[in-house]
Amino acid sequence: MLLCTLIIPVFFWNAEKTDAFSNQVIQHGAVGDDVIELQSRLKFIGFYTKKIDGVFGWSTYWALRNFQYEFGLPIDGLAGSDTKAKLVKATKNMPRGTAKKQAPAKPKAGNVPSGFSENDIKLMSNAVYGEARGEPYEGQVAVAAVILNRLESSTFPNTISGVIFEPLAFTAVADGQIWLTPNDTARKAVLDAINGWDPTGNALYYFNPVTATSKWIWSRPQIKRIGKHIFCK
Predict the structure, then answer these.
(1) What is the tens place of the pLDDT at every residue in 1-23?
(2) How many CB atoms lie within 10 A of CB 54?
(3) Which of 49, 52, 150, 168 would bridge with 102, disulfide CB 3.0–4.6 Å?
């Protein structure tokens, strides 16, 4: 009888703490109500800053990892029972129904957020393949991220095609490699960048130090090197 008295309250405590979610582990690539709940709670306490779209992309992944780090949880980017319980406890003051109010009418399938056409994705895939097909995967995502960072900057054109075809912007455009047929890896790199993964740290430029001849590009503040490319502000 004593054993039952000790175990039963613990069982109900865990159920109470995670009933906002289903019992499934939420991970990168997931879509639906669990992701909306996750994004809403992470946003309520300041870890997630993007749109609540019900798509577990890289922005959600890194927000979740940061939450796990700050709250002393295993840092794996997975929303399992312990992480969900801690998140529910951390957001106990979040108004009821917040997630439902912020939910999109219908989450986008395939991890492609609204605002980007299939032509945008195809064109970015061409650019990534033409510029970085020999680079590690992170380096390919980085090139896609630079295109997106330029898109958000007032210094550059405000369309994907405008950014890519701006005169002298990309070597692949100048030498015609932009028209090579991209592979699935290039497309995946583009989708990962669109979903929030920016390995560059908000870089607007990059160059290959072995082949670069422009004194101007060498003068840009450097952020990091990925593969053969140096990424700069």
Answers:
(1) 444 444 444 443 343 445 688 88
(2) 25
(3) 52
Token pair of 15 as six digits: 């159920």
CB 227 within 8 A of CB 136: yes
What whole-number distance in Å separates Cα of residue 115 and Cα of residue 50? 14
Amino acid identity for residue 166 in this structure: E
Nearest to 51, CA basis, from 131, 137, 113: 113
What is the spatial order of strands in the sheet that 205-207 belongs to? Answer: 205-207, 229-232, 222-226
Strand, coil or helix: 61: helix
3-state secondary structure of 95: coil
d(CA 174, CA 25): 46
Are 31 and 107 in contact by the 8 Å Cβ rule? The answer is yes
pLDDT in tens, 121-166: 999 999 999 999 999 999 999 999 999 999 999 999 989 999 999 9
Please report the DSSP string for 121-180 in residue order: HHHHHHHHHHHHTTS-HHHHHHHHHHHHHHHHSTTS-SSHHHHHTSTTS-HHHHTSGGGS
Predicted TM-score (pTM) of the model is: 0.56
d(CA 194, CA 56): 12
